[in-house]
Write a structure and sequence with these properties.
The chain is an alpha+beta fold. It has 2 domains: about 50 residues; about 80 residues, Immunoglobulin-like, CATH 2.60.40.420. It contains 1 helix and 8 strands; from the N terminus they run H-E-E-E-E-E-E-E-E. A 4-stranded mixed beta sheet has the order 2-1-3-6, with no helix packed on it. Strands 5-4-7-8 form a 4-stranded antiparallel beta sheet, with no helix packed on it. The structure holds copper (II) ion. The site of copper (II) ion (CU) has 5 residues, from loops. The site of copper (II) ion has 5 residues, from loops.
């Protein structure tokens, strides 16, 4: 009887040891996973911080003159500061037309990422009188 008891307790001791080992492995893999997630997040944050964002204003019926020099890869955030809705679109150097969202209501912004050097035409689908030409020259000093 005694013998059986000691066998049983040895088996449960071994079982506990195994459980402990598995738990340790689990904790270690969770740590490795967390570390790699953090590393990826940090890399993404650094990448986001490296992008330049310029601000453009679309007031009542025109794009306000801007004083930045856009380069390829920059972001341009255009805010509608007027009290009417606009629908901005951009004509690319090759004739392609890109509409920025559907409509920019008063106070809303739209973001455009400058794809490459060239001359871009900013217009509004609702108000054909609105237009602005933007030259992108990444090698400019
Ligand atoms: Cu408009």
């Amino acid at each position: 009887m005694n013998r059986m008891n000691s066998k049983t307790s040895l088996a449960s001791f071994n079982h506990l040891q195994n459980l402990r080992r598995q738990l340790l492995m689990l904790v270690m893999s969770v740590c490795v996973m967390l570390a790699s997630i953090l590393a990826v997040q940090q890399a993404q944050a650094e990448q986001a911080a490296a992008v330049t964002t310029h601000k453009m204003i679309l007031s009542h019926h025109e794009f306000e003159p801007w004083d930045f020099e856009p380069k390829a890869g920059d972001r341009i955030e255009i805010t509608n500061t007027s009290d009417i809705a606009h629908s901005i679109y951009i004509t690319y150097p090759d004739g392609k037309v890109v509409t920025l969202g559907d409509v920019q209501l008063p106070g809303q912004s739209a973001v455009w990422e400058v794809p490459a050097d060239g001359e871009y035409l900013f217009k509004c689908w609702i108000h054909p009188i609105i237009n602005a030409k933007m030259k992108v020259l990444s090698d400019a000093p």
